[in-house]
Automatic annotation (TrEMBL):
Residues 138-325 form the Methyltransferase domain. This is Methyltransferase domain-containing protein. It comes from the Eukaryota. SUPFAM superfamilies: S-adenosyl-L-methionine-dependent methyltransferases. It comes from Biomphalaria glabrata. InterPro entries: Methyltranfer_dom, METTL24, SAM-dependent_MTases_sf.
Length: 360
């Protein structure tokens, strides 16, 4: 009887030991699983903030609900649409001379800034507004990159009549920004070109002019609208409503789709930055043989927070084959609250003959 009782106690003791061992093993495995899940979740959070392929801007609401980072999405230092195609760097430009401009602007606007990590030949190192402003200033003062042997005055602009770029009938000219000065447009008409002049600020209806050129009560933009409200400036001193079109839409409406624009002139008081960006996105630059641009950085517009993006747009234009054969700096004001810089550039598209086969 005593032996049987001892055996029963021994059996119960063994059962208790086995149960305790099982509990410890279960808790250990559970903790390991939690750590693995936590590690995996943390790794996923790092990945979630990166843009998905063709996701466009980094907007957290574009992600599935279970993948959003509610605190703050990971942002790039320079917010450029992710979907933009890379420019094939066919025209390599040495911007080393821009370092003097960067030093001057640093001394004026951020004297304690360190320039040791800034390389004027690397876009990604230009991250502050004054650095971008310095680079844009350099572009308008840097040595010309195409030497035009036959530069001809046409009104208050020029065209390059070198053999590769000669403008002769039949030729097509678009001129955006007139302000009642048709000297360029008339000179191109006398040359025998089909000329279209555009300016919504003049309060003139679309009409055929006496010299057979056409004036359009229409403005150039990065979007299509019939209800654009312009900002007041030296050209607009009363409320107006403008009809605006992208260049691609203008070409379509005028029956010029996929036709060569021999000369494109744009002087549109600060709107040029968004327009050029849109022209790159829509691929119409490949149809342009010569390009004339007046760029504007006004004291109040575009805002300085956009300067890095503006510099990138300007850089991309140069990289895709538009080389200056003439530049014309305007007087500038280098004070932060009154900052103002403007200038004219005249370009030839050095890759024009190949453009039909390029993805610019």
């Amino acid at each position: 009887m005593a032996g049987g009782l001892f055996s029963s106690k021994r059996f119960l003791l063994l059962m208790i030991v086995f149960l305790m061992a099982g509990t410890v093993l279960f808790l250990t495995l559970s903790q390991s699983t939690v750590e693995v899940n936590k590690s995996t979740h943390l790794q996923q959070k790092v990945v979630v903030g990166e843009p998905k392929k063709n996701a466009g801007y980094l907007i957290k609401d574009q992600l599935p609900a279970d993948e959003r980072i509610t605190e703050k999405p990971i942002q790039r230092k320079i917010e450029v649409p992710v979907h933009k195609p890379a420019v094939r760097r066919k025209d390599i430009v040495d911007n080393s001379g821009a370092m003097l401009y960067l030093q001057q602007y640093r001394d004026l606007f951020d004297a304690k800034a360190d320039l040791s990590n800034v390389d004027p030949n690397k876009n990604s190192t230009i991250v502050k507004w004054w650095q971008a402003a310095a680079m844009i200033d350099w572009y308008i003062h840097s040595p010309i990159r195409y030497k035009c042997e036959n530069r001809v005055a046409v009104g208050n602009w020029h065209i390059c009549q070198d053999s590769k770029y000669t403008i002769k009938p039949p030729c097509l000219v678009y001129s955006f920004g007139i302000n009642f000065d048709f000297s360029f447009d008339d000179a191109m008409t006398k040359l025998g070109c089909e000329v279209h002049s555009f300016d919504p600020s003049m309060d003139k209806e679309t009409h055929r002019r006496e010299n057979n050129s056409t004036f359009h009560n229409l403005g150039l933009s990065n979007t299509n609208t019939d209800g654009f409200l312009p900002r007041k400036d030296g050209y607009v001193n009363k409320p107006q409503v403008w009809k605006m079109r992208t260049l691609k839409s203008v070409m379509k409406e005028l029956g010029h789709e996929e036709k060569v624009i021999d000369v494109l002139k744009i002087d549109i008081e600060g709107h040029e930055w968004a327009v050029i960006d849109n022209m790159m996105e829509t691929g119409v630059f490949k149809y342009v043989r010569q390009f004339m641009l007046e760029f504007h950085l006004f004291p109040d517009w575009p805002v300085k927070e956009d300067y890095v993006n503006l510099y990138q747009i300007y850089t991309r234009l140069r990289e895709m084959g538009f080389s200056e054969y003439a530049v014309g700096p305007h007087p500038k004001t280098l004070k932060e609250d009154k900052f103002n810089n403007q200038g004219d550039s005249e370009y030839v598209n050095i890759f024009f003959e190949q453009n039909n086969n390029l993805e610019l």
